[in-house]
Design brief:
The chain is an alpha+beta fold and 696 residues long. It has 15 helices and 25 strands. It is globular. The structure holds zinc ion (ZN).
């Protein structure tokens, strides 16, 4: 176990502060209610990860969970590892005494003695692991997973209060009064409960989990819809917006959509002052409450909070079509992706700092183009949330640039959060690491190496559920056809929106090789569209249908409309050029440096690949020397490395902050770069993504 035990990053006094109940919040919680769990509306039968099949403002709609299976190559290997290692290992941890998450539910249910352990949001992280399990079940139909979930759901049901309340810290500890202080993250737990329950219903057809979520959503509606002052500022780690929209989609109960929208409408409407409901957690821009979303121009505050909020708002837009909302989301997406995102797709530049409106912030966004490498925070969750926001925007707008971001995050700043063994995790994902630069003993979430358990366990299940649901991101249904969002060996067996069957296979060694072959196995007789994403980096891409060329524009979808038949073959070839990228001139931290990227994969230099004792800071890349990509089966579980000539600068003496410099002495070194996601798998090492460059 890692010795760097994480401290409560709320960092404000005792975690057992019992605050006075405020307003009517308390009374609505533990009172008895007879609430039969009957579904007042007929349940929806679509099975998408986000079920936008009937959403009026969506261009690209989800395929059903289980329609796509990775069959060979990179993502097939990752999915298999999720199935065999990541999800089972995590289950053992969370159900055991180290994770204690399941214990919390058992104690809350009166089935076990003990105290609540873990952060306030630990329930939510347990629901994320359950969600991951359901995606795996959706593909492999392993009855054991179903039985395990049924047992757990039974316990969760017993933990739920008669009125529908369900968050184990307050159920276990009488000193915590429900919905009296937002630092308890009750709505975060709510959001993951509702999402996980919807997924469980979609893949199993059972309503045992959904019934619990319905009872809880009804409780939330009763509590929040009167918009009393005491609850107005609660929605801040806004997974409940996404959860409520999925509940609406599943149950067709409009109140849930109304409440989801209300959580957007209430934000930015209260005075930014500390009150009993906010004490113990930063206020203002940190939690996106200074400016109403529809008026906001800048992504601010905690990056996870912000991006869950935007993702939820995109779900609401999918149902309501409100122009002011999508205009704001367009501005915010652009601000994140074009001014505050790392080359790895990571977001949240700093652990602590201030917003441009001078509110204290943590784990979040700072000024545009202010992109430190060494101290970059880049929480794994934030990176994943970035791709979740883009996934929703892909649906709503139908433009390939959103899938480019999903791909970028997946292949880089998401996967860097987990070890190649699948059992150790990073919370932060910096772009540079130098021995001795950070005092890890003083930091709570930065780690010198990935750890097998993190006290704040939000990231690991978020990442594992993302890998487990990745087949569902690979394709979307268009008005009359299918879009191919992600590449990798897979089989698709789905129905188009008109109900006709479409079966196809995709063969590829992506991301190591840019050749993709898609073969139609079964389809309707009438013409339909196959829409291929041509990544923005893929200059010179060619697409051929049965040998005939089709136009391919990088950064756009290539839409091929024709009468397809079984045996038709699409061959796509994306040149995997090794590219040196420089940052926007405004990014001072990377002036005269380059990052190296090949296809969707960002590369890095790591000390195990350098002569012993070399400082990562002395490694320069030779701009004129050719680089070569080579697949190495025995390196880091099998990756394509980039062979390059480095210039190693002779170390400088002295520790002065500023010193006179004369022309440095360099030594040539034939070395290699490895994929960023695979760093830190060979012991504690130094890392660098942006390298100084020398041109002849
Ligand atoms: Zn996290």
């Amino acid at each position: 176990m890692n010795k760097h035990v994480m401290k409560n990053w709320l960092a404000l006094g005792s975690v057992l502060v019992g605050l006075a109940a405020c307003g009517g919040a308390e009374q609505t919680s533990k009172k008895e209610k007879t609430q039969p769990v009957a579904h007042r509306h007929s349940l929806d039968t679509n099975k998408g990860i986000i079920d936008n099949t009937n959403s009026p403002n969506v261009q690209l709609k989800s395929i059903d969970i289980g329609d796509c299976r990775w069959t060979q190559g990179f993502w097939a290997d990752k999915f298999k590892q999720a199935e065999e290692v990541m999800v089972p290992y995590m289950g053992t941890v969370l159900k055991g005494d180290v994770g204690h998450a399941y214990n919390n539910f058992k104690i809350a249910a009166g089935l076990q003695e003990g105290q609540h352990k873990g952060f306030w949001w630990h329930d939510g992280d347990f629901y994320k692991w359950m969600e991951a399990s359901m995606y795996i079940y959706g593909v492999n139909q392993d009855e054991k997973i179903l039985q395990e979930m049924d047992e757990i759901i039974e316990v969760i049901g017993q933990a739920q209060q008669p009125d529908g309340y369900l968050s184990t810290p307050a159920i276990i500890n009488d000193k915590i009064k429900p919905f009296t202080n937002r630092k308890y993250h009750e709505l975060y737990n709510s959001g993951h409960l509702m999402t996980s329950a919807c997924i469980h219903y979609r893949v199993t057809g059972q309503t045992n989990f959904l019934d619990i979520a319905v009872k809880h959503a009804d409780y939330l509606y009763d509590l929040f819809s009167p918009k009393t002052d005491s609850v107005k500022r609660f929605g801040f780690n806004q997974t409940q917006i996404m959860g409520l929209v999925e509940m609406y989609r599943t149950t067709q109960d409009k109140r849930y959509l109304e409440l989801a929208e209300q959580f957007i409408n209430m934000r930015g409407q209260s005075k930014v002052i500390e009150d009993p409901t906010t004490k113990g957690y930063p206020i203002g821009d940190m939690v996106q409450e200074r400016v109403p979303l529809r008026e906001e121009n800048e992504a601010v505050g905690h990056a996870v909070l912000a991006l869950y909020y935007y993702a939820g708002a995109a779900d609401v837009y999918a149902e309501t079509g409100e122009q002011a909302l999508i205009d704001a989301l367009d501005r915010l997406w652009d601000n994140v992706v074009n001014q505050k995102m790392y080359v790895t797709g990571a977001v949240g530049q700093t652990h602590y700092g201030a917003s441009t409106r001078r509110d204290k912030i943590e784990e979040g966004f700072i000024d545009a183009y202010m992109m430190p490498n060494l101290t970059a925070y880049n929480e794994t969750c934030a990176n994943i949330c970035n791709s979740m926001f883009s996934h929703r925007m892909l649906g709503v707008k139908g433009e390939s640039k959103y899938a480019d971001i999903m791909e970028l995050v997946l292949h880089n700043s998401a996967l860097s959060g987990i070890s190649l063994a699948g059992t150790e995790y990073y919370y932060g994902n910096p772009l540079r690491k130098i021995d001795g630069a950070l005092d890890y003993e003083k930091m709570n979430t930065e780690l010198p190496q990935r750890a097998p358990y993190l006290d704040c366990f939000c990231c690991p299940p978020n990442l594992v559920r993302t890998i487990a649901k990745s087949p569902g991101w690979a394709y979307s249904k268009s008005a009359n056809g299918i879009s191919v969002n992600l590449y990798g060996g897979n089989e698709l067996n789905t129905t188009l929106l008109d109900g006709s069957v479409l079966k196809l296979t995709q063969t590829s060694d992506y991301p190591w090789d840019g050749a993709v072959k898609i073969e139609i196995k079964e389809c309707k007789a009438e013409p339909f569209d196959i829409i291929l994403r041509v990544p923005n980096w893929a200059k010179g891409t060619s697409i051929k249908v049965n040998g005939q060329s089709v136009e391919a524009v990088p950064g756009q979808f290539a839409k091929i409309t024709r009468t397809w038949q079984s045996g038709d073959v699409i061959e796509m070839d994306m040149p995997m050029e090794i590219t040196m990228l420089e940052g926007h001139p405004r990014i001072e931290e990377v002036r005269n440096q380059v990052a190296i990227k090949r296809g969707p994969v960002v590369y890095c230099v790591e000390t195990p690949d350098l002569p012993k004792g070399t400082s990562i800071l002395d490694v320069y890349v030779s701009g004129d020397s050719p680089m070569k990509a080579e697949y190495e089966e025995d390196l880091l579980g099998g990756v394509t490395a980039i062979k390059a000539e480095f210039m190693l600068r002779q170390p400088q003496s002295g520790d002065d902050m500023y010193r006179a410099v004369s022309k440095p002495v360099f030594e040539k070194y034939q070395g290699q770069l490895i994929p960023y996601f695979a760093w830190s798998n060979r012991g504690e090492a130094e890392l660098n993504v942006f390298l100084p460059v020398i041109w002849e």
